[in-house]
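Lecture 7 notes: from sequence to structure.
We start with the chain below.
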Amino acid sequence: MAKGTPSLNLIRVFDAAARTGSFARAAQRLAMSAPAVSQQIRALEQHLGRQLFHRDAAGVRLTDEGRALLSACTAPLAQIESATAEFARPRQKTLVIGASLMFSVAWLAPRLPQFLAANPGLRLDLRALHGRPEQAGHDVDIWVAFGPFGPGLVAQRLFGERLTPVATPELAQTIRTRDALLAQHLIEPSAHETTWAHVLGLQVLPTGTRTTKVDNSLAALHLAAAGGGVALARAPATDGLVAQLGLQPCAGPECSIIGAEAYHVLHPESPTPRPETRRFRDWLLAQAATAALPD
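Predicted structure tokens for the same chain:
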């Protein structure tokens, strides 16, 4: 009985000979000599204790046991060839990007196809950041956040924001004044520094004001679009989403203010930042420069 597993090279030689039906043609395919192929086949037969080929003047042909071995080897060899071909390809570089859910969905996602088209060899990993200020994981290459920022980071300003009350068209046309606005359900993201009180020029909202707290501006705008009250649009980051949801400004320009915060693009300080990080940062800054900035 044969012991152990035959080498992969013996199986490759057997596979080539079985598929070509000729030791000579197998030798050509494998860049070997025909005698070397014949020797390898005989070594495999001795190892297995089985005759794999009939040999005669017309050439070689598989025995029943040879056909059984070929059938058993076909799928594993194909898997090995596929795996080695995959490893031989140039490895795609991955850029890990972090941003708030609202910024990612409302502002970044509609623009990303342009960046992807210009960088076909780059794979993106877009992650939602949470917290106040937004914190990026240790493996995030570049991210967008309000701040403040700790040491060791490069921060470049993208744009500020203008906060404007918005509601469904039916509700918006009924809200012309600040008092009319205060009579509505006011939807407020819990994480933002600039609140409804700031927008309305108050220290605190009057007792009895109906408010609904949500996690983020994305949820606030969708709730407003469903008729759940009035939300704060944060131009220019939410412009596309506001238009998509059909929301309209209300209560007049006196209730629209410049926010206290600004979006920044950040990445760790390094004398040699990754080329992919630089490309995305420069692209993001160019996109921000073409936005209709409120300030």
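Points to note: The domain at 160-260 is CATH 3.40.190.10 (D-Maltodextrin-Binding Protein; domain 2). The first strand starts at residue 53 and ends at 56.
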